[in-house]
């Protein structure tokens, strides 16, 4: 069955809501067709050994930039570790960064870029790593009492597609898989119209398999959840089964292993906060709301009304946390316009979101 969505939310956020009709082919925002394939080459050409964090810049933030920055964080600060929670179909490591007290009873998870075209959130999460480390360097002792884990880019294959198209992929079989998905939507005119072709890839939201990871979590609502695409595509497709995707499984395993006390999910766009879930217990819901209020106090973002949260047949990461795991979480939609939001928005986004994580940590600690 198809679920009807509340129109007001569709205008606010392209992220969680489900568009039921064939989309309008918007022009490419941020990347002209001419610069589409050269963007990554330019990024790679910018001194890979630089001592400056690339997440502090205002140009496109790539997987390679993140790898450089993780190493730089480990070089410049004590107590930073990183590992991989899984390997994607195209062969990328899904990095986890850990700071704080590994023995602490309280644990927080921060996740970015589950939606590919929302890759600016990876640099937001990376800034949050540095933020906590700077707090400690300046004498704050919060990290003595909490362990914070960050997965800045849970969907790196999808990010590569959104940023660089087919050439962003590593394996030949990956390129063939993406080409097959493109060919399967040829009735949209993707071959005849370069703008439509660029739109399809630049707006890529899914993983390499063409599955929307945030529609792929195996909640009790998964079977009934509507699916406007019904086959691999650049957005929305929920997959062949709940939890079918390796990235979904990797994130679920991390949560099951670590049993976090709170989770922050970063998405774009709309400057709004999803916090509620009709299947959450009263206790979890109260914590969801408390965290949302903290985020709102810093950012000025509006809380999405519970009747518009889409949780009835919710299949996103937050739905799974609220409904199946009883772990409080909020989903923060940063940026304005359409995704990928222009890179220059990072400065405004950071002005809004600086201080959020330190205060969430204090809340989790009851301080
Ligand atoms: Zn999203």
Structure description:
The chain is of the alpha/beta class and 367 residues long. It has one domain: Aminopeptidase (3-Layer(aba) Sandwich), CATH 3.40.630. The protein contains 12 helices and 8 strands. Strands 1-2-4-3-5-8-6-7 form an 8-stranded mixed β-sheet, sandwiched between helices. α4 links the parallel β3 and β4. α3 (63-76) runs parallel beside α4, α4 packs across α11 (346-353) and α9 packs antiparallel against α12 (356-365). The longest helix has 18 residues, at 120-137. The protein is globular. The structure holds zinc ion. Zinc ion is lined by residues 15, 115, 118, 267. The site of zinc ion has 4 residues, from loops. It holds the Pfam family Peptidase_M14. Belongs to the peptidase M14 family. Residues 224-233 have a biased composition (Basic and acidic residues).
* Class from secondary-structure proportions: alpha/beta
CATH topology descriptor: Aminopeptidase
- Main sheet strand line-up: 1-2-4-3-5-8-6-7
Overall average residue pLDDT: 90
Radius of gyration: 19 Å
Do you know the CATH architecture? 3-Layer(aba) Sandwich
Report the CATH superfamily: Zn peptidases
End-to-end Cα distance: 46 Å
Give the cofactors and ligands: zinc ion
- Number of beta strands: 8
Q: What number of structural domains do the residues give?
A: 1
Low-confidence stretches: 1-48
CATH C-level: Alpha Beta
Portion in strands:
5-15%
Sum up the overall morphology in one term: globular
Biggest β-sheet, characterized? Answer: 8 strands, mixed
Helicity level, as a percent range? 25-40%
Order of helices and strands: HHHEEEHEHHHHEEHEHEHH
Please give the count of helices: 12
């Amino acid at each position: 069955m198809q679920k009807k969505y509340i129109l007001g939310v569709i205008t606010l956020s392209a992220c969680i809501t489900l568009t039921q009709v064939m989309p309008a082919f918007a022009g490419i925002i941020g990347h002209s067709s001419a610069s589409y394939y050269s963007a990554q080459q330019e990024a790679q050409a910018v001194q890979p050994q630089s001592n400056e964090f690339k997440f502090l810049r205002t140009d496109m933030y790539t997987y390679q930039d993140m790898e450089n920055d993780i190493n730089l964080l480990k070089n410049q600060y004590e107590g930073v570790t990183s590992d991989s929670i899984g390997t994607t179909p195209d062969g990328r490591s899904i990095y986890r960064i850990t700071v704080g007290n590994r023995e602490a009873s309280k644990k927080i998870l921060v996740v970015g870029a589950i939606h590919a075209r929302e890759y600016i959130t990876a640099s937001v999460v990376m800034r949050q790593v540095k933020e906590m480390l700077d707090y400690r360097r300046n004498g704050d002792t919060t990290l003595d009492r909490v362990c914070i884990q960050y997965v800045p880019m849970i969907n790196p294959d999808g990010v590569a597609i959104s940023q660089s198209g087919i050439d962003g992929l590593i394996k030949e079989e990956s390129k063939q898989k993406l080409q097959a998905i493109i060919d399967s939507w040829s009735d949209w005119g993707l071959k005849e119209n370069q703008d439509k072709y660029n739109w399809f890839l630049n707006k890529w939201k899914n993983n390499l398999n063409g599955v929307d990871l945030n529609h792929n979590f195996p909640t009790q609502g998964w079977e009934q959840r509507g699916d406007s695409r019904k086959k691999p595509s650049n957005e929305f497709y929920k997959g062949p089964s709940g939890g079918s995707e390796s990235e979904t499984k990797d994130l679920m395993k991390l949560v099951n292993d670590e049993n976090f006390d709170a989770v922050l999910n970063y998405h774009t766009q709309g400057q709004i906060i999803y916090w509620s879930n009709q299947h959450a217990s009263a206790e979890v819901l109260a914590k969801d709301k408390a965290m949302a209020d903290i985020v709102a106090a810093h950012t000025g973002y509006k809380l999405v009304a519970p009747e518009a949260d889409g949780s009835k047949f919710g299949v996103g990461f937050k739905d799974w946390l609220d409904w199946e795991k009883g772990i409080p979480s909020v989903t923060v939609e940063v940026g304005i316009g359409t995704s990928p939001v222009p890179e220059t928005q990072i400065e405004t986004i950071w002005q809004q979101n600086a201080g959020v994580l330190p205060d969430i940590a204090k809340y989790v600690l009851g301080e």
